Amino acid sequence: MTTIYIEEIARFVGQDVTIRGWLRNRRASGKVQFLIVRDGTGDLQAVISKGVLGEEQFAQLAKLTQESSLILAGRVRSDARAHGGFELEVSRIELVQIAEPFPVQAKEHGVGFLMEHRHLWLRSSRQHAVLRIRHEIIRACRNFFDERGFILLDTPIFTPNACEGTTTLFQTDYFGERAYLTQSGQLYSEATAAAFGKVYCFGPTFRAEKSKTRRHLTEFWMVEPEVAFAELPEMMELAEAFLSYVVGRVLEARRTELATLERDVSKLERVKPPFPRITYEEAIALLQKKGNPIQPGDDFGGDEETMLSNEFDRPAIVHRYPSSIKAFYMQNDPERPELALCMDVLAPEGYGEIIGGGQRIHEIEKLTARIQEHKLPEEEFRWYLDLRRYGSVPHSGFGMGIERVVAWICGLDHVRETIPFPRTLYRLYP
Ligand code: 4AD
Ligand code: MG
């Protein structure tokens, strides 16, 4: 008898198959019992009749608790009334383990309790849907760059230097030397871009974020393309094409999961180029008009991002922030030297920044001066400055945080549900 997964059941109507999974729910009605079984790929209703199983085994089913593991054999039937449209007419059942009372119930639990039981909470249908969408997003990210000839080159996790400011570094001991967990692969991707033309890195990044917000994790995944010879406008187009592609792939492949989450997909269907582009100065004016107290020169916080992103029906690109509030490596606008040639992409519906990036300084004198101004250890940046010595060219890139994109696409109000095991200010367990 073929062992199959529930997601492929439509191909097996009328055939005898084996399903291996866990019990979600059981309901008895006289001589018949209905089990809802999940196997990781979907849920299936299994129908068991006393006549087939025999009095004794049938009675034993009463012991079956939620999350008990079992193996079922039977015939697949198409049944419009059943969840998913199919059911299994069981001929044989093998119990693998009777589960202890399962702590995570369908009833409402507090967030603290759920996070404490994250390893079990992952089995719930909502979490399952979110994480399948996460997988689809990651696959789409890779496919987008792979299809366009970008080379995936992983960057190190242990680094001797800071990329995104020194205030959020996680420090660790590296055989007696000081090392940090990477905040971004960007600096190394600039080296690989000079070697391979167009590249991307994709890995975990770390920031000792002391703030408790719905957008910040201390460990998150970032996909970062970097392109030699590209300038800021090209990056905006790349970001726009990239996001549209990713959303499009999820809409194509994960409709069921989006429905489980009751996501309004019409909002996602609008994610198509061109995205509105506004300057930082225009954004400030817009915020002030809305009554926000922000002043020119201030950075945006969560509230400002939310306000701005509510103004548009698709992602919006905010560009040319003051250099003074941006990272040391950012190229400045030749026409307005106090502004950086940078961009942030804000997701709509109040989600805020999902992409940050821009053009990098390629002149060695300028970059050296910037490293000194930011009081960064020059010695650790020797290799980075080398890139400006040997065939230096304008180049640009960006980084997109996976968890924020998952939160937006799934319509979640917090990033903690977007990664299997979130790491936040107060959470290192499980
Ligand atoms: O804007 P950021 O800091 O940009 C960089 O790190 C650049 N070096 C990237 C590059 O140009 N290659 O971070 C990029 C993105 C943000 O837009 C956000 O989506 C995500 O990373 N991000 C976080 N996500 C979750 N938790 C945090 N603490 C995050 N910090 C940044
Ligand atoms: Mg940023």
Question: What keywords describe this structure?
Answer:
single chain; 430 residues; alpha+beta; OB fold (Dihydrolipoamide Acetyltransferase, E2P); BirA Bifunctional Protein, domain 2; 8-stranded mixed β-sheet; 5-stranded mixed barrel; 19 strands; elongated; binds 4-amino-1,4-dioxobutan-2-aminium adenosine-5'-monophosphate; binds magnesium ion
Q: List segments where confidence is low: pLDDT < 50 over at least 5 consecutive residues.
A: none
Please tell me how large the radius of gyration is.
Answer: 26 Å
- Treating each run of at least 4 consecutive H or I residues as one helix, how many helices? 14
How far apart, in Å, are the first and last alpha carbons? 38 Å
Count of domains: 2
Strand fraction band?
Answer: 25-35%
